[in-house]
Structures are given as structure tokens and as C-alpha cells.
Amino acid sequence: MPTTPILYLKDVVKRFDDFTALDNINLEIFEGEFLTIVGPSGSGKTTLIRLMVGMDEPTEGTIWLRNERIDQTPANKRPTCMVFQSLALFPHRSVGQNIEFPLKIKGVSPKVRSKRALELLELLHLPKSFYNKRISQCSGGEQQRIALARALAFDPEIIFFDEPLSALDYRLRKTLEKELVDLHERTGKTFVYITHSLEEAMVMSDRIAIMNSGKFEQIDVAEVIYSKPVSRFVASFMGEVNMFDFKCDSKGDIKIDGVEIRSSVLTKDKQKKYSKKAKGTLMVRPEFVRFNKAKETNDFQIRGYLRAEYELGSRIQYEVDTLDDSRVIIEKLREDRFKGKLGATVVIGWDIKHTHFIPND
Amino acid sequence: MERLDNKLGTLTSLPMVLLLAVSFLAPLVVVAVFSIMPPKVFSIMNVPDFSAYADFFQQGYYKSLLWSVAMAFISTVILFLICWPLAFGMAKVFGKFTLVLTIAVAMTLIVSENIRLFGWVLTLMKGGLIDGYLRTWWGLRLEGVLYNGPIIVFGLIYVYFPFMLFPLAQGIAMIPEDARQAAEDLGASPFRILWEIDLPLASPGIVVGSLLSFVLAAGALAESKLLGGQAIIVFTDEVETAFTYGQNWPLGSALAMILILIIGILAFFSISKIDLDSMMGRRR
């Protein structure tokens, strides 16, 4: 990982009247990385990107680009730019003129401009004939690429993306996600992407920042965020998850209502550093829960009955209702399909190495 | 099914289309025919000649045409400059205040143009409202405001203000906000945004507003008569005089035809340049 941050947000707060949209944000963005900010709608991610781009000013705190303070600098004086959710292409200009726009503003000669525009068309896998096309003649995916070419023509230090793929259909979105990763590698630019789609974030990013009600919950690589979330919010936001409340007894041993825990677990558990009477959440992802055959045992075990089975395509999802009315989700690859009947009594279980403990704050 | 519907639609609209065509076109045709009659006849059953058109050049009528066009042009330009910031505010900034402004401006249309212009005459004339107060309070005089070219242009601007303001506001409302933001984000100064984004994207509104103001101002009569006191004889004045005092219908018709032709060409040229559909709310 690179070491010096290219963009640095320090104690940033943004309030609209009484509403606090951003609550003490601290963020370091490193040169050349692909950072994705994920959060549900209303979590403040759009407000955050508007501050970073310069369309709004923070109420408190500072923003630094390299060693220059930029939080009061207007958008047109910052060396960063954004690909809008709506793309914001200029409908009255041709494809070529759209791409050349930032160069025209900088006063680059028409000859150099059109040369650069043609290079960018090629970089984004668009034919040269698009140069004279009208924007309205281009498809959604093509417009996407044009918006990207226009941003690259600006030659920004950082390119921000405000959910630009959200309006496209699934297949095209998948293609463009991978193209974006490829483009990031080839240009070496710093990409900051915001989205509410976890999948998009996982596919593309070097690091993911999870946002919730104006704060960062966790900033890390996808692997860590998926398997070691710091909070229930992150755990449930990063896909399907089973979570159980646990308590520690006076000896520091974990107890969960309705779950049989093998006593040897506690000695196996390396992270057993909970104080007496500690409380928290035990988390296990659905792909690690097994249907037990007779005589097979796991570190954690629950009895229940098979309630439902859903096709997910590559996987199959099962819902198991336990005897004390909680629900466990299990996912199996198609080849490992469980052949039990709906309503049948099952014993399910998982091992300590696939669990993650989230202590209560 | 759809084709039958289309046919029925055309058929049912036919009577109205014919009525409108006859009532709009017939007077024009009569004027056009009269314009190629010999001088001072009152029937179209004469041998055509173009003496009336020759008179336009020989008798110096082109001078008043130039005056009309020049004043219409100047007032249109000034109207645009005044209305742009206001229309921008109405479309993008004012919010609820826009409605108040719209009603206030539209209200002026309820009172007849002539009466409003008389109001200005009473306000500005020697011994009028302003002059009277100035004299009573400070012993100053306000003279020479009325009866000249600039006050006619003022009158044109005053009367045709709504015809520029509303189309312009409509045009500006069509500028997508994100395009403006994107331009700023890509380094454009406010002036460049105005030049590269606002003006081209608001062009349908600009064309419609300018066309309305120009056409109406070029055909205006009351401003020069009331405020201008006929210090400048505008072209419509000449047309009226030819028909009434001059009793020369062919000359009046020829002059009218010239004005119609100039304005018609201008209108067709401008309208062909813009997408009226987009302004009427239909998507491309």
C-alpha cells in the first residue's frame, strides 16, 4: 500500500440546519488506490463526495490535497473531477466536443484537443467514428464511457464516481465494473467510487469504506470487511449473515441461548480474551454452516427444521428455523445440495474458525 | 387500428383547419393582391403593377422601416440583457417567489397597453407627476424626457417585457443543473458556464423571447405615437397613414407586405434553428 495520502479529510462535519449529515469524518485516500465508499441511501456518502469535489463546503474540519488545504476552494479550481450519477453529458455538444470540453476550458489548441479525444475514445474501446456523433445517439453504456473519457481528458489527480453505473442493466454493469478496474490499472489514477451496491464495491476496490448515518463504520480491504466486520451493521450490510447474541459467564466462557457449544471450543478459541460478563455478537456466514449427518459434530450446533429453500443460481439458500424461533441461513454450492425435505428436522453446525466475535461497545 | 385513428383524426380536424386557414390566409391574400395594384384604386380588378413597391424606395419609406427595425432591435437586445438575470432567478433561484413575480408581471397584461402608456405620459410629461413634485419640493424641472427616440425604446421595453421574460425563464428552466455542475467541476469559470452551457441550452427560450419581442416591437405603433409624440415616424405609422389619410390602399398593402416578408423570413429562419418541441415539454 502506498504511504502518503493524496487526499486527507480531518474531523469533517457537515450540518444542514439541525441535521448532521456528516459526523466527524476522518479519511485518508492514498495515491493510485481504488477506494469505494459504500453505504445505504441517506448515509451521507453523496454529501461526502460533494465536499471532496468542491460543490459544498464542510461546516467544520479541513480537507487537504497533498499538502494544500482545499476545503474552501471552489470545484472549478480543484484538480479533481467527478463522473455524475446522471453522467451530466452536454446534450448540445457532440461526443468529441464533450470529451474535449475540459481541454477547451484550459485553452488547448483544437488540433491537440481532437488528437487527445481520439486517443481517449480508443482507450475506452469506442470507435473513432463516435467523435462526431450526438450524445442522444449513444446507448447507456457508450454514454458511460464518454463521461469517463471526459473526466480523463481533464487529467485530474483524483476521479470521483457518484454511482454512475446504477442506471444500467445487470450485464452491462458487470462489464463496465471490470473495465473500470482495468482502466484504473492502466491509468494509475486515484479512483474514489461511491455506491450502495456491495457487489460493485467488492469487485472493484482496493479498499472499502462502509458508511452509516454520517460516520465510517469500517475502512479496510474487502476480505477483512467481509470476514471480520467491526459491527453488526457492517456484518449485515456485507451480505447474508447469521448473528447470535452471546454472554460470558463468570468463568469467561461463552454462552448462547439455544446453541450447543462443545466445551473444547473454548480452549481452541485463540481470541478468548473476553472478560467475565462480557456481551457481544457471534457471527457466521451462511456458506460456513453445515447440515450435519448422523454422528457428525461441530463446535457449535443447533437443532431446527428446514423451513425453505431458494435458488440463487450458483448457490442454493436454505432457511432453518430453530426450536427457540430464531432463523439460520445456510448457503450451499449446487453440487453440495442438501437433499432434506421441507419441514424435516435437521441438525446444523459450524466451527469456531469460521466465526467472528463482535464485542458490544 | 392506429392508422384508422390517424385518418379519423385528420378528417375530424379538417373543418376547423379549413376555417382557420381561410380566416388567417384570406386577409393576407387580399393585402398581397392589393399591393400589386396601381396607386389609389379600391378594387383588385385592375392591371397589376409594382408602382407601390417602387414608392417604398422612391418616397423614402425605407427610412421609417429602418427606424422601426433599429428600435425593435435595440429594445430586444436591452430586454434580453435585463430579463436574463431575472429569468435565471425565476427558473433556478427564487423558488416560491417566482410565482409572485410571475403574477405581478402577468398582471400588467390585464390593463390595455395604451392606458399604461398614457400612465407613463402623465408621469413623465412637463407638469406631470414627477415634474410636478420636483418643482414643488426642490424647484427643479424635468423636461425633454418625452417625444424622442430613447423614450420610444423605453416604451417598447416596458410593454414587451413579459414576452421576453417568460420564454427566457422557460428556456433557462430547461438547462439541466448537473450539466452546469459538471462544467464547473471540469474547470469552467462562471462566465464560461454561461457561454458554453447556459446560453446554448437555453437557446430555444432565447430565440422565442427575442422573436416575440422583435416582431411585436417592429410592428408597434402606440409607443411612438404616445410617448414619442411622432418625433420618429415608425413604419406601421406609414402603413396606417397610407390606408387612412392617404387613401392609398395599394401603397399601404405594399408597405405591409414588406414588413410581413421581413418578419416572416426572420421567424422561419429562427424557428428552424431551434427545437420547439423540447420547449413544449415533448421529449426528443
List keywords for this structure.
heterodimer, A: 361 residues, Rossmann fold, six-stranded antiparallel sheet, elongated, B: 284 residues, mainly alpha, MetI-like fold, 14 helices, 0% strand, globular
Structure report:
The complex is a heterodimer of chains A (361) and B (284). With 361 residues, chain A is an alpha+beta fold. Chain A has 2 domains: 5-234, P-loop containing nucleotide triphosphate hydrolases (Rossmann fold, 3-Layer(aba) Sandwich); 240-353, OB fold (Dihydrolipoamide Acetyltransferase, E2P) (Beta Barrel). Chain A is built from 9 helices and 20 strands. In chain A, helix 2 (95-106) packs across helix 3 (110-123) and helix 2 runs parallel beside helix 4 (140-153). Chain A is elongated. The model of chain A has no long low-confidence stretch (mean pLDDT 88). By secondary structure, chain B is mainly α. Chain B has a domain at 61-99 and 147-277: MetI-like fold (Orthogonal Bundle). Helix content of chain B is 75%, strand content 0%. Chain B is built from 14 helices and no strands. Chains A and B meet through helix 2 of A and helix 8 and helix 9 of B.
